[in-house]
Amino acid sequence: MRQERNNIFAGVDFTLVFLYLFLVGFGWLNIYAASKTPEDLAFLNFSTKYGKQLVFIGLALPLIVLILFFNSKFYEKFSSLFYIISIFTLLGLFVLGKTINGATSWYDFGVIGLQPSEFVKAFTALAVAKLLSDRQYNFALVKNQIKAFIIIFLPAFLILLQPDAGSALVYLAFFFVLNREGLTLNYILLGISTVLIFISTIYFGPEAIITSLFILITFFLILIIKRAGKRFLRFNWHKIIGVYLLLGVFVFGTNYFYKNILASHQKDRFDILLGIKTDNRGIGYNSYQSELTISSGGLHGKGFLNGDLTQGDFVPEQHTDYIFSTVGEEWGFIGTSLVIIAFMFMMYRVIYLAETHSNKFGRVYGYGLASILFFHVIVNIGMVIGLLPTVGIPLPFFSYGGSSLWGFTLLLFIFIRLDAHKNYDW
Amino acid sequence: MQRSFLLYFSITLVGVIFIGRLFQLQILRGQRYNPINNAAVKTQYDYPERGYVYDRNGTLIIANQLSYDVMIQPNEVTPLDTLEFCALLKIDKVSFLKRFERAQNYASYLPSVFLKQLAKEDYAYLQEKLHHYKGFYIQKRVIREYPIKSAANIFGYISEVGEAKAKKNAYYQQGELIGKAGIEKEYEAYLRGTKGKKYLHKNRFNKVTGSYKNGLLDTQPSNGEDLTLTIDIELQQYAESLMNGKRGGIVALEPSSGEILALVTAPSYDPNRLVGRKRSKNSVILMDPNNPDKPTYDRSLMAQYAPGSPFKMMNALIGLQENVIATNTSFRCYEGYQYGRRKNEFMGCHCGIIGSPIDLKTAIAKSCNSYFSNTFKRIVEKGNNPSEGLNNWSKHVKSFGLGDYLGYDLPAGAAGRIPTGDFYDKRIRYRWNAASVISNAIGQGDIETTPIQLANFTAAIANKGFFFTPHILKKVSGETIKNQKYTVPKKTSIAAKHFDPIIDAMHEVFKTGTGKSSQIQGLEICGKTGTVENSIKIIDGVKTQAPDHSILVAFAPKENPKIAIAVFVENGGYGSTIAAPISSLIIEKYLKGKISKPWVEKRIKALSLQEVYDKQKSKEIAPRTK
Q1: Is it the case that residue B601 has pLDDT exceeding 70?
Q2: Average pLDDT over every residue of A126-137
Q3: For a disulfide at B46, which of A265, B141, B221, B246, Cβ 3.0-4.6 Å?
Q4: How many domains does chain A contain in total?
Q5: Which of B124, B162, B125, B118 is nearest to B141 (CA)?
Q6: What is the predicted pLDDT for the residue at B622?
């Protein structure tokens, strides 16, 4: 037993490790294809993107060993401290951060820059796990729910101020975690219907939506009154009026917000996605090229390093946020489905393992990991294949970037660590 | 429900949606994906040389010339001495800045045309100087050249293909040249040849990075085919010179083949005016709808006139075919024909033979209105009712190719009009009879024909009952055309034997009749003059009747005819005064190669009707007769 505990690989879930290696390795091949220049090859070298990424991958290995070296208790015990440090690194950005593309998200260390928001996800997941696994914690109390919300949304808020809306949005993923631990689904339903009304208002205009919503509600109201009698009306009239008012305000508010408050470039992204506007040159160029690039791959793809759209640099940011389009062109439908299935399998595996934890800390953390992965995959691939608006967040393990790679490595291997010792460490 | 269900379910749902979307993009849409139509592949066109065109005698009539454009690639331009540069290109500074800005707006890193089509003299000089100016260079282009300043209506012109056409037809890219009128349009497919294509790899910045698939799919251009037309360009030029100062059209055909020997519209223009840099400026002038001359309106194909007296031959032929007259049938003429009971229902006649019987031959030679009114009345009355009679008449007329587009190979034309019984049933509410439509007997009334239709009608008489569809294309790359549309004769509904008396009568016209003064020693010309009355118009509040149109149809020689011709001169007066000498000159020129009466030629060339035209500022292009 002692011996096993000294072996840092004992109990490690090799399915997850294998999936990790597959995604990172396949990711690198695609980064190589997307950023290769015909001139010279420089692998372990900072002069090229693929060379840099190879160095990042190399540095991820000692990080993994380090993560596995620590005891599970270590992560539980120091989770609050990690969280506080995280918040301070985010705050520190406002003083010391470097502004790239209008967002102050980076610490600049000369040869490399670090993006703290990529790491904070893992520490927030630890903090949430810590909070929810507390024996005193009762999720039914609104006070406790608010506590959880604060832990989740404080970093999100700080990231939003950078401003990096994409990375901030990721924190919505924690709803899955909270739901697992007892938060009612109504929040999610409310969220989804809000988004639906928001989008359809933009698309069809406020008049059409408000009319159809009112007709729908009135119809249900009549149904309810028929069943429950007029008494229902007498006791609930204020709620009914409230619903009507709220919807009216929301729909017209949305319209106002969209037309007058939303920045024009954000508005354009919605417009293009909803097909209100077509623009294959300006703002819509990325999505258009990305879709075209993926389509051109067909079933088998054009083969590694043979994607002429990739090689001609037609998709901007292809090695980072649009890396999936390279898979589409060079590896075809077979490659893209394989990547999606690998991600699905990884998430299934994490949830499955999390559910086997007797300890709540490990379970909550596992859900945090699965949810964050899920959210990243939806937003990133959804954008690349033209189902979601352009939101710049990386594809986990796949996209170019040291912070992203290390952040997700941290997130995953802490779980692998917790999972390895779930049976005898507590 | 298990707590983990929501996340499992969401992951599965999203996974299925994503894979479904990828299936749609890569499998469904990927099938339609053409690797050449790819942003990473640049197609470079290699333009072939447009085909040359020759006349029937092998004279080159349409050729190509080199033209030089000054090109600019704005991002490569270094600061330069604008003043000197402008002087070099012979433009002013404002124009320089405007052109520069336009190129910049198009694309800073792509070449575009800075100055189109330099004069040849300027090119040699510029060639030496231009390399001092970075970002500018000269590009050669091939444009049309018309060595003979004639036949613009036949040649047509080429210009840049429109956006709509470029979208519809995959062959053309916007800005490429395409035939827009005349044979340039009609035989575009022969003349243009096939572009060569070179596929190149390029990156997002349009920089070429190499050839696509090592040039495996590249194709070579193939030059356009050379065409030989049926036109005799010398005859064409001669006919055009005779139409100097007049409006109208002339069509000359070879009856034995339907080949168009000359196709003249007047006034016309020098086809070189629609070539090169001056094209757009000139096209505005030439195509101005307020220009009463309408030089781009091909009167020989499109102007619809009443045929007048030449149509009497048609009624004679139908009369013979329908057996309502015979060659010896005579009618009497009393300075006209009383077709109704009322006093004004009387058609005047100038045949000059009063009271004595007139036979068919004399009637044609002297153009007697009464004779053909009688004939026409009998034709119409042969039916069970006037409508049926007239329908039958109309059927005969149409068998000569009248009243419809003839099917010749030029992209302009008009149908003309041959009224039918149904036409009058609709127009005349009350009961009508032959007398109601009697004007048709002498080719006035509601009949409208174009000069080419009338020339074809004449050719059918010359052939004694059949014709070949008129056409202008003789050979493609030296191979004589074999299109059955033009090589198989079309039969008219009139039996061959009925033509002999008509031809004899037409021969009489030039011997003793209305064409007597235009007869040529040693040439057996058969023809018929015509004088078409114009309707009365109110011009500036005054009732004005424009002078008559002068018409003549003829063929020669009588035996084995070589040429059939129709001449229309707007407001030229009697057929015998202008149209007859014009046609006999053309016939003589074509058959003999020289002119025996140079004084007539001189008089006709000098004769201008401009004063007559100026008097009637009518908005109509060709005043219609009615």
Answers
A1: yes
A2: 89
A3: B221
A4: 2
A5: B118
A6: 46
Contact (CB<8Å) A309/B40: yes
B456 and B473 part of one domain? yes
Question: What is the arithmetic mean of pLDDT over B295-307?
Answer: 90
Within a domain: B401: yes
Question: Does residue A331 share a domain with residue A235?
Answer: no
Of A275 and B186, the one with more pLDDT:
B186
Given this model, what pLDDT does residue B34 score?
66
pLDDT tens-place string over residues A273-301:
666 666 555 556 777 888 888 988 888 88
Q: How many domains does chain B have?
A: 3
Q: Of B109, B131, B147, at which residue does a domain stop?
A: B147
List all residues of chain A from 64 to 123 with a beta carbon under 8 Å from chain B.
none
Can you give the pLDDT at residue A72? Answer: 87
Subunit contact A295:B26, Cβ cutoff 8 A: yes
Residues A29 and A158 in one domain: yes
Token pair in block for residue A25: 């390795």
- B175-211 burial, b at 16+ Cβ within 10 Å, e below that, comes to ebbbbbbbbbbbbbebbbbebeebbbbbbeeeeebee
Q: Does A173 share its domain with A251? A: no
B199: domain range? 32-42+195-225
Q: By the CB < 8 Å criterion, does B26 face chain A?
A: yes
Find the closest chain B residue to A184 by CA distance: B3
Least confident of A212-216, A261-265, A301-305, B203-207: B203-207
Q: Please check whether residue B164 lies inside any domain of the structure.
A: no
What average pLDDT score do residues A363-383 get? 94
B215 and B319 co-located in one domain:
no
Nearest chain A alpha carbon to B22: A333
Place of tokens 């006034």: B267
Query: What per-residue confidence (pLDDT) applies to A183?
Result: 79
Burial of B524 (0-12, 13-18, 19+ CB in 10 A): middle
Q: What percent of chain A has pLDDT over 70?
A: 92
Query: Which of the residues B18, B199, B209 would you substitute to probe the A interface, choosing the one with the greatest number of A C-beta atoms within 10 Å?
Result: B18
Cα A419 to Cα A74, A204, A413, B472: the distances in Å are 14, 49, 9, 90
The domain of A342 spans 2-182+281-420
Q: Tell whether A44 is covered by a domain.
A: yes
B453 in a structural domain: yes
**Chain B nearest C-alpha distance from A294 (Å):** 6
Cβ-contact A37, A50 below 8 angstroms: no
Beta bridge partners of B71: B113, B137
The nearest CA of chain B is from the CA of A231 a distance in Å of: 34
Reply yes or no on whether the pLDDT at A3 is more than 60: no
- pLDDT reported for residue B624: 43
B16 located within any domain = no
Q: How far is A363 from chain B (nearest CA, A)?
A: 11
Contact B17 A387 (CB under 8 A): yes
Residues of B with Cβ-Cβ distance to A292 under 8 angstroms: 39
Model pLDDT for residues A29-39, shown as the tens digit of each residue: 999 998 887 66
Q: What does the DSSP assignment read for B487-536?
A: HS-EE-SS-GGGHHHHHHHHHHHHHTSTTGGG--TT---EEEEEEEPPPE
Give yes or no for a cis peptide into A163 (omega within 30° of 0).
Answer: yes
In a domain, A72, yes or no: yes
Query: For residue A273, what pLDDT is reported?
Result: 62
State whether the Cα torsion B354-B357-B362-B367 is positive or negative. Answer: positive
Give A-chain residues touching B8 at CB under 8 angstroms: 348, 351
State ipTM: 0.86
CATH number of the domain to which B84 belongs:
3.90.1310.10
Query: What percentage of chain B exceeds 90 in pLDDT?
Result: 38
Report the residue of chain B nearest A308, measured CA to CA.
Answer: B40
A169 in the same domain as A210 = no
Contact call for residues B506 and B332 (beta carbons, < 8 A):
no
Question: A232, A262, A292: which is the final residue of a domain?
Answer: A262
Contact A333 B23 (CB under 8 A): yes
Say whether pLDDT at B528 is over 80. yes
- Mean pLDDT within B294-312: 90
